[in-house]
Amino acid sequence: MLPVLAGSTPIIVSVYNNTATIITDLTISYTDGITTQSESFASLSIAGFTSQQFAFAVPYNLTATVALKSYVSSVNLIPDNDQSNDTTTTQYICPALIAGTYTINAALATGGANFNSFNAAVSALSCGITGSVIFDVVSASGPYNEQVTIGTIPGASFVNTITFNGHGNTLTFSGNVGNPNTLLLEGADFFTFNNLNIIATDPTYAIAGHLYNGSDYNNFNNCIFTANLTGSSTASAAFVLNNHISNTALPGLSGNDNRLTGCTMVGGYFGVVISGLPGDPFNYANEIVNCVVRDFYAYGIFNTYAIETIVRGNIVERPTRTDGTTTYGIYFAYSIDCLIEKNIIRNLCGALPAFSSTIYCLYNASAGAEFYVNRWINNMVYNINAATSIIYGMYMPTNEYIQFYHNTIALDYAASTSGATYGIYCNGNEVDVKNNNVFITRGGTGIKYCIYNTGNLAFSDYNNFYINAPAGTNYVGFQFLPYSTLSAYQAGTGKDLNSVNVNPQFINPGAGNYKPSESLLDNLGTPLGVISDIVNASRSLVTPDVGAYEFVASQTDLGVESLATPDNNGCYTATESVSVVVRNYGTQPINFSVNPATVTVNVTGPVTATFTGTLSGTLAVGSTMVVSVSPAPQYVG
Q1: Cα separation of 337 and 455, whole Å?
Q2: Assigned domain for 100 exists
Q3: In sequence order, what DSSP letters do the residues of 464-519 get, joined into one string?
Q4: For residue 208, what is the domain's CATH number?
Q5: 506 and 564 co-located in one domain
Q6: For the chain, which terminal residue's Cβ has fewer other Cβ atoms within 10 angstroms, N or C?
Q7: Please, are residues 435 and 544 in contact by the beta-carbon 8 Å criterion?
Q8: Does one domain contain both 491 and 628?
Q9: Are residues 609 and 484 in the same domain?
Q10: Which of 94, 113, 136 is the last residue of a domain?
């Protein structure tokens, strides 16, 4: 029963005739455990298997929370000795509608401006609010071991919001098959939760944060949602927005304009789920921004049946998870007009060195509509450290109306031993693939493609497709048949006529810095209206760079590319000449009479030596030069 205010409250009882005999006379009673009130009702005609309501002449004076029990004392002037079908209702009392600032502190009793639990605070909200309400959870006052369910709050609005400031406290609960949620918003609107740790502890049925049944305009800032870190139960997720109280991915009308900002989602079969109604009206305008989603079992971010979802600036990774299955970093399906930008997908097998299941880093299926395209912009994929998995950087099966712009996909795990590799996989019309930087040097015997198109790809151009894997069969592209070189792919498909095949010379891949330094790659993109890059640096609106990073190549940039002699076959003579290959990575030729340069080679080991070489002449942009070093350009081993 809904809460009511204290005071005189009418008591109405519904009686059901569970026999074929007509009821002509009743005596009904109710009690609060202390006082019993009885009243007789005559001249009745309640037919068999029908019901009728009765209002007591004397109302009950509600002064505190109370359990009222009602029952039938006599039927047709005969005492009713079977009271197994009596009913009990708890009537909640609200002393007044609330507004203002309150505390939650388990060390103090509920009273005045303090509540000793989250549920006590929610109970006070249930009658309604007259203004904005703030609950400050006193620092280090937890953990709070309770399940919290919040329904619609009368009076809540864009102006009258409700805020819980967690101050790093923990809310924890162990769920079950029908009730797995720690924090559940059931049709609740205009809530904000800040800096709260929310944990679902059951190993099988665990949803830490759950919004459903039309929960709108809710915000979660810098919260941590944690579900189970082992096991394959699909009934577990860190955060869910859908329309089922216990099923993680079941679609339905669930909520609009909800936002996760700066949060961390840990564990679960799913990291984050947004699952709307499979038809109009879809879910719309939900956002996941600047969050970390990690150590999930199968899906990092899962989005279906939605409009205008924004997924921006997130890190999706699995550094410590020790079990897994077919893996999806960011998964979108049956959704339109969505923006997925500036996200990083990395380290999906950090604790799974022998991982062999298929990996879809970015995935978009059955997408888009004319004028409502899905946009994947400035995303970064790297360090996909799987030993034998089939890996897709971006996977677009049976798609239309997708813009895939300015993304960097680096599949460069040298320790891989097998497994096919696809930088970009496309199948569909109206897919626009431009200004991307695809880099494949992954080890292993598996076949490898920068771009693989099984349909009639509408637009693909101004990309960089660099492939130089040490093993397996390398193909730049595929459309009806494979092409081993960019020129062959261009001639055979008519696609990517302005694309290039250039080593980007990433600045520091080991530290996750995949910004290019190669001058030959500078300014090769085409204007697409993308005004910033993955780190929010401004892009050129005339000559943007390909990939997720906008960069400026140095005018003078000379670097060592490799050791020319001795080679690395391990069979050396008593004396070996030493020479190195240097490359001009800058944007202008280097005249060594104007800009002198010296190469130094340090030899370590049982016998140490230092060699130097002076460069002469002029080195063109992108060109290499072999430099011999001295003294006596040889190393005595």
Answers
A1: 23
A2: no
A3: EEEE--SSS-EEEEEESSEESSHHHHHHHHS--TT-B-----EEEGGGTEEEE--G
A4: 2.160.20
A5: no
A6: N
A7: yes
A8: no
A9: no
A10: 94
pLDDT of amino acid 4 = 67
CA separation (Å) from 15 to 55, 69, 79? 11, 13, 15
Distance CA 332, CA 367 (A): 8
Amino acid at 488: A
Residue 534 domain-assigned? no
Are residue 181 and residue 86 in the same domain, yes or no?
no
Domain count, the chain: 3
- Please compute the mean of the pLDDT values over residues 425-452 and round it to a whole number: 94
Asked if the model's pLDDT at residue 632 lies above 60, the reply is no
Is 617 a residue whose pLDDT tops 80?
yes
Average pLDDT estimate for 49-60: 88
Q: How far is CA 246 from CA 218, 300, 325, in A?
A: 20, 19, 22
Measured between alpha carbons, how far is 599 from 610 in angstroms, rounded to an integer? 11
d(CA 188, CA 212): 9
Provide the residue range defining the domain that includes 498.
Answer: 145-156+168-514
Q: What is the CA radius of gyration of the chain?
A: 34
Q: How far apart are CA 461 and CA 459, in angstroms?
A: 7
Alpha-carbon gap, residue 420 to 428, rounded angstroms: 21
351 and 239 belong to one structural domain: yes
Q: Confirm whether 535 is domain-assigned.
A: no
Contacts of residue 478, defined as CB under 8 A and 6 or more positions apart, other chains included, come to 449, 451, 452, 453, 454
pLDDT at 152: 94
Q: Residue 44 has which token pair?
A: 């009745």
Kindly tell me the burial class for residue 336, based on how many C-beta atoms sit within 10 Å of its own C-beta (0-12, 13-18, 19 or more): buried
For residue 36, give the 3-state DSSP assignment: strand
Do 290 and 344 have their domain in common? yes
Q: Are strands 421-428 and 448-453 parallel, antiparallel or unpaired?
A: parallel
Q: Under a CB-based contact definition with an 8 Å cutoff, are residues 164 and 137 in contact?
A: yes
Same domain, 562 and 486: no
**What pLDDT is recorded for position 142?**
92
For range 441-455, the mean pLDDT: 95
Whether the CB-CB separation of 361 and 392 falls below 8 Å is answered with yes
Q: What average pLDDT does the chain have?
A: 90
What is the number of helices (H) and of strands (E) in the chain? 2, 63
More confident residue, 340 or 177: 340
Which parts of 305-447 are beta strand (E)?
A: 306-307, 310-312, 315-317, 327-333, 339-341, 344-346, 359-365, 374-377, 380-382, 391-399, 402-405, 408-411, 421-428, 431-434, 437-440
